[in-house]
């Protein structure tokens, strides 16, 4: 492996030498030498091959310009393409490391005819603060070739790569199907996999692990027991009290006066209204989300299916037996897009929580993110506090995460609204259309008239479309037209500027969760 030393693109220092001699002379004393430290910053690339031609080697890593661009972004990895002119060449990646090395130049001069008389001169060329090391394996390669009927391989480069503007005949020519994936392997480091059985797949082993507190290494981690009770719409009975494990769990973590206050507030909420969504609870009670996972199973059970799916129901209350529970049914609403709705997928008024642009490519380095605090840490901090502190709305969400009103945009592209939280007069009239005439609770429509949910979705979609169309002319006239950025996620950045007002007004606070994300995994 040959090291390649290049000047730091960010360094403005110059290295001036006369006739190959160093500016700084080495002071030799016995077997040691004292050298002056240079201010030149260098970047080292540990090239994973023998370098016979420097120009060819530089071309394989993108040239000096490519190295400079990679160095300017600390999150990128250095790409090495052994066939730089091949568009289908999958590169090897070099990781970036901080280093404190010196580049030392040593010259040895020997007088002709007298090898005993030798002169050695040394100088420090510069400081190496960054080193790129190719420690992984290169990805699998797939050549753009095709086997003809005679068994000979035929190159497809001239048939599939546009080197100049072509006429229609070029596109009409038959070409073999060639659709290689962008990458074959997402990992470039070797992993030992011995095909051992998953130690936590069986229920017995998982329970033994919990009881013995063994930290077993396995592909699947043990479920965290939060002791919630799940009820399906077809179940004959509903629970009237929590599991004993849920009571023990909450008593264990309820150590601070604020926790007891939150429990009292939650009971008052369920007395006022027997069915709540988790986001609605988090918008009314200020409690840490990790403690909320233990408090909810203590006062309510969770509906899995039916018109109250994904909602928490007070113990002892069966919404299938009383028509008054109609207003607590859930409405699964998703923002529609298309030309008939006034906006496409790229200019939707509500930004996604996750985007394909945020996909982790092999060219980037996964930075370590701060780990969330565990419930144990929260309990220790609460117990160690010397006195009651003033309550803050640190964990409260905005009302827009569960309430819909006219003239507003949902904070997420998919929302689970309860019918009582749709604060629109036209919607209320449709919900109460059959008041007093409810006969059967259906699994799809509950106590409502059939296809009520479809009608409500059409109304909300029309209101959102009107809101977007009403605000679009004002935003387009006030804001200048910007040129498209060359970054990958420029489309989302431009759209965010058009809806800054909406994002500021309806953006959920930190720590909020999209209710689309199921809560089942937290409680199984």
From TrEMBL:
Polar residues bias locations: 1-15, 373-387, 467-480
Keywords, sorted A to Z: DNA-binding, Nucleus, Transcription
Pfam families: Tau95, Tau95_N
Record domain Transcription factor IIIC subunit Tfc1/Sfc1 triple barrel: where: 43-143
A single Gene Ontology CC term: nucleus
Domain of life: Eukaryota
Subcellular location(s) of the protein: Nucleus
GO biological process: transcription initiation at RNA polymerase III promoter
Span of domain Transcription factor IIIC subunit 5 HTH: 178-334
Biased composition (Acidic residues): 490-505, 512-524
Region (Disordered): 1-23, 370-390, 467-524
Main location: nucleus
GO molecular function: RNA polymerase III type 1 promoter sequence-specific DNA binding; RNA polymerase III type 2 promoter sequence-specific DNA binding
Protein name: General transcription factor IIIC, polypeptide 5
Organism annotation: Sinocyclocheilus rhinocerous
Organism phylogeny: Eukaryota, Metazoa, Chordata, Craniata, Vertebrata
């Amino acid at each position: 492996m040959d090291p390649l030393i290049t000047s730091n693109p960010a360094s403005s220092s110059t290295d001036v030498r006369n006739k190959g001699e160093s500016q700084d002379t080495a002071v030799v004393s016995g077997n040691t030498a004292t050298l002056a430290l240079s201010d030149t910053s260098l970047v080292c690339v540990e090239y994973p091959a023998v370098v016979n031609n420097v120009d060819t080697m530089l071309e394989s890593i993108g040239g000096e310009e490519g190295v400079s661009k990679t160095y300017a972004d600390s999150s990128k990895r250095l790409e090495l393409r052994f066939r730089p002119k091949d568009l289908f060449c999958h590169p090897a990646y070099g990781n970036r490391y901080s280093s404190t090395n010196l580049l030392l130049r040593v010259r040895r001069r020997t007088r002709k005819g007298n090898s005993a008389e030798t002169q050695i001169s040394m100088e420090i060329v510069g400081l190496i603060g960054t080193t790129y090391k190719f420690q992984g394996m290169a990805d699998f390669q797939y050549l753009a070739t095709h086997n003809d009927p005679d068994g000979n391989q035929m190159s497809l480069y001239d048939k599939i790569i546009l080197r100049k503007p072509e006429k229609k005949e070029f596109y009409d020519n038959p070409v073999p199907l060639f659709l290689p994936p962008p990458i074959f392997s997402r990992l470039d480091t070797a992993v030992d996999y011995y095909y051992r059985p998953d130690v936590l797949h069986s229920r017995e082993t998982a329970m033994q692990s919990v009881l013995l507190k063994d930290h077993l290494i396995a592909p699947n981690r043990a479920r965290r027991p939060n002791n919630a009770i799940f009820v399906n719409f077809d179940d004959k009975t509903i629970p009237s009290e929590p599991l004993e494990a849920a009571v023990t769990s909450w008593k264990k973590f309820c150590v601070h006066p604020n926790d007891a206050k939150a429990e009292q507030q939650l009971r008052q909420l369920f007395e006022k209204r027997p069915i709540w969504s988790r986001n609605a609870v988090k918008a009314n009670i200020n409690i840490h989300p990790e403690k909320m996972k233990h408090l909810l199973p203590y006062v309510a059970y969770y509906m899995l299916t039916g018109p109250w799916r994904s909602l928490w129901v007070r113990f002892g209350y069966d919404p299938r037996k009383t028509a008054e529970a109609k207003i607590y049914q859930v409405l699964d609403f998703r923002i529609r897009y298309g030309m008939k709705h006034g906006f496409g997928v790229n200019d939707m008024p509500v930004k996604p929580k996750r985007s394909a642009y945020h996909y982790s490519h092999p060219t980037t380095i996964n930075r370590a993110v701060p780990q969330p605090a565990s419930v144990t840490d929260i309990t220790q901090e609460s117990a160690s506090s010397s006195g009651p502190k003033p309550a803050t709305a640190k964990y409260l969400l905005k009302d827009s995460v569960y309430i819909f009103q006219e003239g507003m945009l949902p904070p997420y592209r998919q929302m689970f609204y309860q019918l009582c939280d749709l604060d629109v007069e036209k919607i209320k009239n449709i919900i109460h259309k059959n008041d007093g005439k409810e006969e059967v609770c259906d699994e799809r429509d509950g106590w409502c008239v059939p296809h009520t949910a479809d009608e409500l979705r059409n109304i909300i979609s029309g209101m959102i479309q009107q809101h977007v169309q009403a605000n679009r002319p004002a935003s387009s006239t006030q804001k200048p037209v910007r040129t498209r950025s060359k970054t990958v996620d420029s489309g989302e950045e431009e759209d965010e500027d058009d809806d800054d007002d909406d994002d500021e007004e309806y953006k959920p606070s930190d720590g909020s969760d999209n209710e689309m994300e199921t809560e089942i995994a937290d409680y199984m």
